[in-house]
Write a structure and sequence with these properties.
About 65% of the residues lie in helices and about 5% in strands. The chain is α+β, with helices and mostly antiparallel strands.
Length: about 400
C-alpha cells in the first residue's frame, strides 16, 4: 500500500492551511497594531500566503488523483462483487484458503471505506490472483462434495446389510472388512476437503461391494441411475463428432469455416456435432433430478433406454443423478430438443498462437491480434458469423446456426 494515502494527505494539508491562515491573520493584527507593515513584515506574510497557496494546489492535485482512483475502483465493482461472493462460498465450503480470502476481503473493504481507492484496487487485484487457484480447486471439489455424503451413507447401509446376510462366506466377510477400512480413508479425505478423492474412493468400494452383493443375490437393480449405469451403458448412445452428420446447410457453413480456420493455422478439435436424442434425454433428466427440478418418480420412460432414476429414496436418487451429471461432465442444463439434436450445432475447441490472418466469407484476409487465442475470441466470432456459424458466449465450445 502507499505510505500515506491521498485522503490523509488532503486532511493533513487542509489542517495546515487552517493553521497557516490563523497564523497569518494573527501576525497581520500584530504587525498592523503599530505603525503599519514594513517590508520585512510584508515578506513574512507573503511567505505564509505562498505556503497556503501551494497547499491548496496540493489539495487540488490530491483530490484529482482521488477522483481518478475512485473512477478506476468504480470500474472494479463487478470484480469486487464476484470476489465477495466467492469468498463467501469458500467460507461456507470450509475451504482451507477461506480464512485468507475473508481476511483480504476485509482489507479491501476497509480501504474502500477509508476512501483509499488506489489501495482498494491494488489489494483486490492481488487478492483475485491469489484466489484463482483456490477457486479452481473449489469448482473441482464442489460437485463431488454434494454427492459424497449420501454416497457414503448408501455404502454403509449396503455394507451392513451384506455383512449381516445369510450365506456370507469368510472370504466375502474379509472383503467387506477391507472395504470398511477404505471407507475410513474416504471419510478422512472428505474432512480434508478433498472431495474428489473421497468420491472416487467411495465409488470404488461401492462397485467392489456390488460384486459381493451380486454373489449374495442382494445387488441393486442394474438399471438404476448413477455411475455404474453410466459406465455400463453410456457408450450405447454416442454423439457424433463428424461434420458429415450435421444438417446439410449448416454442414456446408461449418465445412467452409473449418477450412478457413485450418488454412490460417488454427488447431481444430471437434468434440460433438449431432447429439443422440436418447443421450440428450438421459443427460436432461440426470440434470433435472440432480438439481431437484423434477421428482425421480416423475421422470417419464425414455424410449429405447433401460434406466430408472428412482432409487426409492429421494436423497439417494438426487445423489445418483448428480453422479451422472459429473460423469457426463455437464455444465449447463441439457435440452431435450436442441441445435445439437437437430444437427445445427457444433462443439469444438479452437486454439492458435501468435497473430492470426484468416479469410472471411468474402475471401478477404482479416488479421486478428486480440486475445484470447481461443474460440472465445470476439473477433473470431465476427468471422464465424459471416460464415453462418455463430458463437454462444456462455458455452465455450458451442457454435450453432443461430448462436443458441
Amino acid at each position: 500500500m502507499a505510505d500515506v494515502p491521498n485522503v490523509q494527505k488532503i486532511r493533513d494539508a487542509e489542517a495546515r492551511i487552517e493553521e497557516f491562515t490563523l497564523n497569518e491573520a494573527e501576525l497581520r493584527r500584530t504587525f498592523t497594531a503599530s505603525d503599519g507593515l514594513d517590508a520585512a513584515e510584508e515578506e513574512v506574510l507573503d511567505r505564509i500566503k505562498a505556503s497556503i497557496a501551494q497547499l491548496k494546489v496540493n489539495v487540488a492535485r490530491f483530490r484529482k488523483e482521488m477522483e481518478k482512483n475512485k473512477a478506476i475502483w468504480d470500474k472494479q465493482a463487478k470484480r469486487w462483487a464476484t470476489y465477495q461472493a466467492r469468498a463467501g462460498k469458500l467460507m461456507e465450503f470450509d475451504h482451507p484458503w477461506a480464512e485468507s480470502a475473508v481476511r483480504l476481503e476485509a482489507d479491501i473493504a476497509e480501504a474502500a471505506l477509508s476512501e483509499r481507492w488506489a489501495d482498494a484496487t491494488m489489494v483486490l487485484s492481488t487478492a483475485r490472483k491469489e484466489m484463482k487457484p483456490h477457486w479452481v480447486d473449489y469448482e473441482i471439489q464442489y460437485p463431488p462434495s454434494l454427492i459424497f455424503p449420501q454416497l457414503i451413507k448408501d455404502f454403509k447401509k449396503r455394507r451392513d446389510a451384506a455383512d449381516a446376510a445369510e450365506g456370507l462366506t469368510d472370504a466375502q466377510a474379509l472383503v467387506i472388512l477391507r472395504l470398511a477400512e477404505r471407507e475410513y480413508d474416504a471419510e478422512k479425505a472428505a474432512e480434508a476437503c478433498d472431495f474428489v478423492r473421497a468420491y472416487d474412493l467411495t465409488a470404488e468400494i461401492t462397485e467392489e461391494l456390488r460384486v459381493v452383493e451380486t454373489a449374495l443375490g442382494t445387488a441393486p437393480a442394474a438399471n438404476l441411475s448413477g455411475r455404474n449405469w453410466f459406465n455400463a451403458n453410456e457408450a450405447k448412445y454416442p454423439n457424433s463428432s463428424k461434420i458429415g452428420d450435421l444438417e446439410s446447410s449448416f454442414q456446408s457453413d461449418v465445412t467452409a469455416f473449418k477450412k478457413a480456420l485450418e488454412d490460417a493455422g488454427v488447431k481444430v478439435k471437434i468434440n460433438c456435432t449431432l447429439r443422440d436424442t436418447k443421450r440428450a434425454a438421459i443427460m436432461h433428466y440426470a440434470w433435472v433430478v440432480g438439481h431437484k427440478e423434477t421428482k425421480p418418480a416423475d421422470v417419464p420412460e425414455i424410449a429405447g433406454v433401460d434406466i430408472n432414476f428412482d432409487h426409492g429414496a429421494e436423497e439417494l436418487s438426487v445423489c445418483k443423478a448428480l453422479e451422472m451429471v459429473r460423469c457426463f461432465n455437464i455444465v449447463h442444463k441439457p435440452s431435450l430438443t436442441s441445435n445439437h439434436t437437430r444437427g445445427t450445432a457444433i462443439d469444438w475447441t479452437l486454439t492458435w498462437s501468435g497473430d492470426l490472418t484468416i479469410k472471411n466469407k468474402a475471401g478477404e484476409d482479416v488479421e486478428i491480434t486480440s486475445t484470447p487465442k481461443t474460440g472465445q475470441n470476439k473477433d473470431l466470432h465476427d468471422i464465424g458469423d459471416g460464415y453462418g456459424v455463430k458463437k454462444l458466449l456462455k458455452d465455450p465450445p458451442h457454435w450453432s446456426y443461430n448462436g443458441k
